[in-house]
Amino acid sequence: MVQEEDGQLVGLVSVDVADRPLGTYVRDAQRAVAEKVQLPPGYRLDWSGQFQYLQRAEARLAWVIPVTLLLVFGLLYFNLRSVPEAGIVMLAVPFSLVGAVWLIWLLHYNLSVAVWVGMIALAGLDAETGTVMLLYLNLAYRERRDQGRLHDRADLTEAVVEGAAHRIRPKMMTVCAILFGLLPIMWGHGAGSDVMKRIAAPMVGGVITSFVLELLVYPAIFAWWKGRGTPEGKYVGELFISNQPKVGGAS
């Protein structure tokens, strides 16, 4: 059989890459061919097949990922009406990538389009779970402020503890609901299961580490943010002692 492409004779060399990322293998193969193969005049080499699809997907992801993060941030801002609060929620995205990368490494998955799709979905999950924690922190903070029980950083700390530590159960229920929905995919078999596993793996690992972040780091960042203008002091009976100088210079 005479094979042709673009009106020229063609000879195909098929390669099945099993244990290495496709993009890394093709780059190494291109380098080796360029160093060791001298093509006669009139000949050319083209790298096609799945590698071409991978290049197209990477070109799309180069702008899809930033646009997705901007959309998530915009939705958070319209919901929270606060740039700092939206930024605090978005801090879960880089921290959740730690768990996503570790689980991908433990499962010996290579970076692929399916893995990147899972990481994009992970950004949405982080925004959801982060908003839940920030909601509880804000509710505790505003309740104490409206009741007139927020005078110094000690009161602020109590409000943060009430909003974070006392809300572990609903927060854990949210994360468990997400995990219980994703874990069956990790044990699935059959057609398409390999792709679905690589989509679910980043979300499973990322949700776990983002859960730890939101319980330990979110309250500290929230306390620092709200406590910038809060005086350090304490109550002694009915007298409030503060280390902030007053207008007349007295303290």
Report on the architecture of this protein:
The longest helix is centred in the middle third of the chain and has 34 residues, at 113-146. The chain is mostly helical. The chain starts with a strand and ends in a 9-residue tail after the last strand. Helix content is 67%, strand content 5%. Helix 2 (50-80) packs antiparallel against helix 3 (83-90), helix 4 packs antiparallel against helix 5 (113-146) and helix 7 (168-186) packs antiparallel against helix 8 (193-226). It has a two-stranded antiparallel sheet with strand order 1-2. It has a two-stranded antiparallel sheet with strand order 3-4. The model is unreliable at 234-251 (pLDDT under 50).
Compact description:
The protein is mainly alpha-helical and 251 residues long. Helix content is 67%, strand content 5%.
Task: Set down the secondary structure blueprint.
Elements: E1 4-5, E2 8-9, H1 22-36, H2 50-80, H3 83-90, H4 92-106, H5 113-146, H6 153-164, H7 168-186, H8 193-226, E3 233-236, E4 239-242
Helix pairs in contact: 2-3, 2-5, 3-5, 4-5, 4-8, 5-6, 5-8, 6-8, 7-8
Feature tags:
251 residues, two-stranded antiparallel ribbon, two-stranded antiparallel sheet, 4 strands, disordered C terminus
